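Collaborator request, handled under Task 6.
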Amino acid sequence: MPNNKFSRYITSKKHFSKQNNYVKSAAFMPNRNQKLSVFCIDELVEEEIWEIGYNNISIPTSKEIYARANIEAEDILTTILEIDNNNTPLRHADIIGWPSEKEDQKGIALELSRKSALVIKPPLI
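C-alpha cells returned to the collaborator:
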C-alpha cells in the first residue's frame, strides 16, 4: 500500500533527544496554517530520504537538518488528523485537520511523537 510511511525532517536540536533516542512533541506541532509538512518515504533507501530533505528543506530554507521522525500513516490516521498527499513538491504531504486550540494540538503532537522513530542524520562522508 503506497504512502505507508512518512518522515518529518527536524531542523531544531530542541525537537529531539539523541541521548534518549526520542522525538519531542514540538517536532509535530502544526504551522500557523494548521498544517504539518511531511514526506512519503515508501520504497526509498536512506540516501534518497536524506536527499529529499536536503533538496526540499535545507536548500530553500537554509536550515540544517539534524534528524527526522519516521511515522506510519496508520499512526497519524488513528488521531483526528488526515493526510493530504498533495505531492508538491514530489512525495510531499501535509498532515491536516488540527484542532484550533493549542493545548489540543499539543496533545496530538505528543501522541505522534510517541509513535514516531528518531533517525539521526549521519555524518557527511
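The cover message to the collaborator said: "The chain has a mean pLDDT of 95. The two ends are 33 Å apart (CA to CA). Please let us know whether this matches your experimental observations."
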